[in-house]
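Throughout our pipeline, every protein is held as a single compact record rather than as scattered files. Nothing more is needed to write down the fold, since each code stands for a local backbone conformation. For reference, a complete record is included directly beneath this paragraph.
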Amino acid sequence: MSRQQVAVLGAESTLGTLVVDRLRAESHQPLPLASYDEDALRAGLAGTDVVISVLTPPQDTGAPSLTEVTGRVLDAMRAAGVQRYVGIGSAAVRWWRDEPTARALLLPRLARLRSRDAQADLAAMTELVSGSALEWTLARVVRTTDAPSRGTIRSGYLGLDAVRWSMTRTDLATFLVEQVTDETYLRAAPVVSN
């Protein structure tokens, strides 16, 4: 495996810290980015091979939406010539490979009850990323936990594969870092769980 320089958006979060640690353990060079304005992103992505984003919809209603920030990131990636984007999404956002099972139909309803704005932001971000010409992967999760690593990662699509309801952040970080070099889910949005 070749050493990659990987920009990490959201590196200050619990999941972001785990991603940075995992990148180091895999001999990659993490580059945490803390500013998401256009100029800072363009400068920060110069020389970068891959972007991993663990950003989620903001809780502050005055902050830019996840979709807006992701749009800035994708623009900066194109300007810097970076082709690989790995991010997180929600299993409540339907993907064309999902089967219309009761669970697949229930998840979006539950998510809208929790936060209609966050669900809409995640759906718009998913559409933005999946519509790009970049080499992207979105890991869709139902719920993350702070439990210790279970060492088992399940990935696939609702109604087709044995994916479950939760994922430890440690195992999610492992999955995201694996996507730096693994092309199994290139231009795909699998659900990941333990």
Residues 66-80 form the longest helix (15 residues). The mean pLDDT is 87. The chain is about 40% helix and 20% strand.
